[in-house]
Amino acid sequence: MSQKKFWFLSRVKMFKDLSQEDAEELEGMLEQHRIRRRQPIYLPGDLSEHVYLLKSGLVKISKVTPEGKELTLMFLTPGALFGELAVISDDARNTMAEAYEDCVVCSLERERFLQFIVARPTLALEVTRLIAERRQNLENKIDNLLFKGAHARLAALFLDLSRDFGVRDSRGIIINIKLTHREMANLIGSTRETVSFALIDMKRDGAIEMDGKRVVILKANLLKRLRDGV
């Protein structure tokens, strides 16, 4: 196996401690795909036949509500495993995975991946932990949608995104991902108009500024107070 391929697998947290032999076996299961920006990787109703690894680019996971409204659940960066529920269930997908920008994605057949992790209990535990962690994050997101106002949800979103995409400069923290007002609304379960008004308020208060489609956090403490309702 080439050093380049081994380097990619080592970026996936749950695979970083694999032996060379196990990494070679896993690499042999991978099928690589180039996905153009805004193209789906899987859709609701698709069969759960594969698990995926993101090699490069950015993937958006979202869900469509019964009312037809899109709710963005998360963004995934290189090294992420997704479609992981296929490990515990062969039910049809109930979410959508989409290339938010041009991506390289590796797919693994569900049955082969199951056989691989069953033979390695430590790895199986890591996959189980990932499923539990994402479930907890989803439950927390639902709680925020139900019990917090739009300003608090937007402040929480910016603070969360700053952990994964934040880049410091002389102004503060740049969230290095381009988001339209519509996408922000999808992330917090709101409307584009409400997000626009919330952004105006945050900019007026000096908490943020906009750099094109990127948010710059100027005063994280103000966002924390808004998030926490202080």
Quick description:
The chain has 230 residues and is of the alpha+beta class.
Give the biggest beta sheet: 4 strands, antiparallel
CATH fold annotation of the largest domain: Jelly Rolls
The run of helices and strands is: HHEEEEEEEEHHHEEHHEEH
Shape summary: globular
- How many extended strands? 12
CATH architecture grouping of the largest domain: Sandwich
Determine the structural class based on helices, strands and strand pairing.
alpha+beta
Task: Write structural notes for this entry.
- The protein has 230 residues and is of the alpha+beta class.
- It folds into 2 domains: 3-145, Jelly Rolls (Sandwich), CATH 2.60.120.10; 148-228, Winged helix-like DNA-binding domain superfamily/Winged helix DNA-binding domain (Arc Repressor Mutant, subunit A, Orthogonal Bundle), CATH 1.10.10.
- The protein is 43% helix and 24% strand.
- It contains 8 helices and 12 strands.
- It has a 4-stranded antiparallel sheet with strand order 1-8-3-6.
- A hairpin with a 2-residue loop joins strand 11 and strand 12.
- Helix 5 (150-165) packs across helix 6 (181-188), helix 5 packs across helix 8 and helix 6 (181-188) crosses helix 7 (192-204).
- The termini are far apart.
Keywords:
Arc Repressor Mutant, subunit A; 43% helix; 2 domains; Jelly Rolls; four-stranded antiparallel beta sheet; alpha+beta
Helices and strands in order:
Elements: H1 3-11, H2 20-27, E1 31-35, E2 40-42, E3 50-56, E4 59-64, E5 70-76, E6 81-82, E7 96-99, E8 103-109, H3 110-118, H4 121-147, H5 150-165, E9 166-168, E10 173-175, H6 181-188, H7 192-204, E11 208-211, E12 214-217, H8 220-228
Antiparallel strand pairs: 1-8, 2-7, 3-6, 3-8, 4-5, 4-7, 9-10, 10-12, 11-12
Helix pairs in contact: 5-6, 5-8, 6-7
